[in-house]
Design a protein that fits this description.
This is Glyoxalase/bleomycin resistance protein/dioxygenase superfamily protein. InterPro entries: Glyas_Bleomycin-R_OHBP_Dase. The chain is of the alpha/beta class. It has a single domain, classed as 2,3-Dihydroxybiphenyl 1,2-Dioxygenase, domain 1 (Roll). The protein is built from 4 helices and 14 strands. The longest helix is centred in the middle third of the chain and has 13 residues.
Length: 199
């Protein structure tokens, strides 16, 4: 199940505000301050730390079965998408990735697969990464812009079946053009990183 996307962005506070204004809750904020990684989690709000020189590594916003993360970058860069899978599925997908000569980086909490399309795919087996598995609020589809053809076919090989939640278009950059999110907003909106969100 597609549940996640991550951006690096110079618009960290604005991105958080956008998602919070659309019903997400901030789960955590981790940033580098005075040389150390520290938590600035809620109930702290931006007025509590805006004047500090914090380099945010990750801010995590959740709603239903959606988890959106972002961290500070000099420009908006799409980094990865994430799928919730069980351990059997994870093993199969990782083997398929190896067969495709795609790099697999297995971690304790999550596994990353590096694609030749200039973004990564996270495989997550821990259901505690989302607020609700039964909620109707979910990412139904992402339209990814990439510089080369073949993404949908490769994802079918990787997952061993068609991945209907990912559509691709060819363009000048690598990013998420559109996200179709169930129960998001009655009108189309664009997040600070250029993701157009449709209900």
């Amino acid at each position: 199940m597609l549940f996640h996307y991550h951006f690096w962005t110079p618009h960290v506070e604005e991105t958080e505000r956008f998602y919070v204004n659309n019903g997400f809750r901030v789960f955590q904020r981790i940033g580098k301050y005075q040389g150390d990684f520290q938590s600035f989690d809620p109930p702290l709000v931006w007025d509590d730390f805006r004047e500090k020189d914090i380099l945010f590594r990750i801010i995590e916003a959740r709603k239903g079965s959606i988890n959106v993360t972002f961290g500070y970058g000099k420009k908006s860069i799409f980094d990865h998408i994430g799928f919730l899978v069980n351990e059997k599925e994870q093993k199969l997908i990782c083997q398929n990735a190896v067969n495709m000569n795609w790099n697999v980086d297995r971690g304790e909490r999550r596994t990353f697969i590096t694609t030749p399309y200039s973004f990564r795919i996270e495989l997550q087996t821990n259901k505690d990464i989302v607020d609700s598995m039964t909620d109707n609020i979910k990412i139904e589809e992402l339209k990814l812009e990439s510089k080369k053809n073949g993404l949908e076919d490769d994802l079918s090989i990787l997952f061993g079946m068609p991945v209907s939640s990912i559509k691709s278009v060819i363009g000048e950059t690598v990013t998420i053009r559109e996200a179709v999110i169930k129960d998001f907003s009655s009108k189309p909106l664009v997040d600070p990183n250029g993701v157009r969100i449709l209900n």
